[in-house]
């Protein structure tokens, strides 16, 4: 993993400023009315997606990194140095202001707003060609890297046409048919013959098409240099970072997002150019579960992958690097607490002592457990000793007997999240996606068009036009 000093950013910032700030007189105008000299200038496109990242998530990950390591997160550093152009993006889908991950990925993946739950199929059943098909037809390589199942919504949005994101067996088969040069993630459940409903052995079928298959970090590191690869490292999603770093077995077997990104870039890099989507998918899951430690440490793991992508883009200026998210989720925040808010910092730092996520805590509890067992399991994973009243609230939630004024907060995850907020000062507004305008950062050819406000579907146009890839059916 490369480390970036502030001095490096200052150096590269000055250089990239020259490129990004150049005025191209006499060109026609394109996206957002900007000059279009950049069209076709991007040999490579990298899009980094922290799934379900509210602004509070970006903020808290940066603040935690500064408190723990004395340096900013890569993403915020790139803003700080004006290396990334920055805008807000509207992620509305065809059916709701609040998008799901499928419609969000499809808006970038085909340039159309589709119904929530759909992957590149419109409200009337019309199929929209996914961006990977266009790039492959133009002779470019394609890659997907994710911490979720390979067949989850965000990676799928760039390669398949499926009416319902839940059809993950079908999605895996379409990935085989359509092909990609790099596929790294989880989701053995949709590739293995003993797990798929149709009994097909997709590993064997990928191998028959010339793919090398990796099932562990060591497999990934020993892949031979040529040809397409399929890396499936977990039964479903890859582990949360907090759980990953606290298990020797997981650390040895499962690669990090940054490690997968590094290998993917090494394989995709070449004379043809490529498009690579990298998803930090479990940021979204931690938000759904109101799990602050899961959220912040997965965002920091995503940030490590951004550092890898930035290193590549900085060394290869003909690369359009996009760093973004597909929607807010549960809008977490570090709340002012104590007299003059003086308690917030120390409370927030308690998250650095967590060794297990809400998932691990709740997996180890049942609604029949004693209050002392509930307190014990929470203290083991968080170093926080909750009181008996709080343990009672959680047990009532597990028994579906707990009632909040906002009924969406009645279940065990939000109740656990709110109990822990008394100690960490981090709370959530719900367990669902939000309509927030999202962060959009970019550098390289085409990033000139990021000038304040963007529509989700325009990002498809930007990637296509920056790479000079024509639309093909
Ligand atoms: Zn999402």
Strand order of the largest sheet: 5-6-4-3-7-1-8-13-2-14
Mass-distribution shape: globular
Mean of residue pLDDT values = 93
Q: So, the CATH homologous superfamily of the largest domain? A: Alkaline Phosphatase, subunit A
Number of strands: 14
Outline the structure in words:
The protein contains 20 helices and 14 strands. With 473 residues, it is of the alpha/beta class. It folds into 2 domains: 31-331 and 433-467, Alkaline Phosphatase, subunit A (3-Layer(aba) Sandwich); 343-427, no CATH class. A 10-stranded mixed β-sheet has the order 5-6-4-3-7-1-8-13-2-14, sandwiched between helices. A two-stranded antiparallel sheet has the order 9-12. α13 (282-288) runs antiparallel to α14. The longest helix is centred in the middle third of the chain and has 24 residues, at 292-315. The radius of gyration is 22 Å and the shape is globular. Mean pLDDT is 93; it is low at 1-28. The chain binds zinc ion. Zinc ion is lined by residues 51-52, 101, 104, 154, 284, 326-327.
């Amino acid at each position: 993993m490369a480390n970036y000093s502030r001095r490096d950013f200052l150096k590269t910032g000055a250089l990239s400023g020259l490129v990004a700030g150049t005025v191209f007189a006499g060109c026609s105008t394109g996206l957002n009315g900007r000059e279009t000299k950049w069209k076709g200038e991007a040999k490579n496109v990298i899009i980094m997606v922290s799934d379900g990242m509210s602004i509070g998530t970006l903020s808290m990950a940066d603040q935690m990194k500064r408190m723990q390591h004395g340096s900013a997160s890569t993403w915020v550093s790139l803003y700080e140095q004006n290396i990334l152009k920055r805008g807000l993006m509207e992620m509305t889908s065809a059916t709701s202001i609040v998008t799901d991950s499928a419609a969000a990925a499809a808006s970038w993946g085909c340039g159309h707003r589709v119904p929530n739950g759909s992957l590149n199929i419109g409200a009337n059943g019309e199929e929209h060609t996914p961006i990977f098909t266009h790039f492959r037809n133009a002779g470019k390589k394609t890659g997907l890297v994710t911490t979720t199942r390979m067949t989850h919504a965000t990676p799928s949005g760039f390669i398949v046409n499926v009416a319902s994101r839940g059809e993950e067996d079908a999605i895996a088969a379409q990935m085989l048919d359509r092909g990609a040069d790099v596929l790294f993630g989880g989701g053995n459940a949709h590739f293995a013959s003993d797990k798929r409903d149709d009994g097909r052995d997709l590993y064997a079928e990928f191998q028959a098409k010339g793919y090398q298959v990796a099932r562990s970090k060591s497999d990934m590191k020993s892949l031979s240099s040529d040809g397409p690869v399929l890396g499936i490292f977990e039964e479903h999603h890859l582990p949360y970072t907090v759980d990953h770093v606290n298990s020797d077995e997981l650390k040895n077997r499962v690669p990090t997002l940054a490690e997968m990104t590094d290998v993917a870039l090494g394989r995709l890099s070449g004379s043809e150019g490529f498009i690579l989507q990298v998803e930090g998918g479990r940021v979204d899951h931690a938000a759904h579960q109101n799990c602050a430690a899961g959220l912040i440490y997965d965002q920091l793991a995503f940030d490590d992958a951004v550092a890898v992508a930035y290193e590549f883009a900085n060394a290869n200026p003909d690369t359009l690097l996009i760093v973004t998210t597909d929607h807010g989720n549960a809008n977490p925040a570090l709340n002012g607490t104590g007299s003059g808010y003086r308690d917030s910092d120390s409370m927030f730092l308690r998250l650095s002592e967590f060794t297990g996520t809400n998932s691990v805590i709740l997996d180890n509890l049942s609604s029949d457990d004693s209050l002392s067992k509930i307190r014990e399991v929470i203290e083991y994973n968080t170093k926080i000793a909750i009181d008996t009243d709080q343990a009672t609230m959680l047990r009532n939630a597990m028994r579906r007997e707990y009632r909040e004024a906002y009924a969406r907060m009645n279940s065990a995850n939000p109740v656990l999240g709110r109990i822990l907020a008394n100690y960490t000062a981090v709370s959530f507004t719900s367990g669902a996606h939000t309509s927030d305008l999202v962060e959009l950062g970019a550098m390289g050819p085409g990033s000139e068009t990021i000038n304040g406000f963007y529509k989700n579907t325009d990002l498809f146009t930007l990637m296509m036009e920056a790479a000079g890839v024509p639309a093909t059916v």
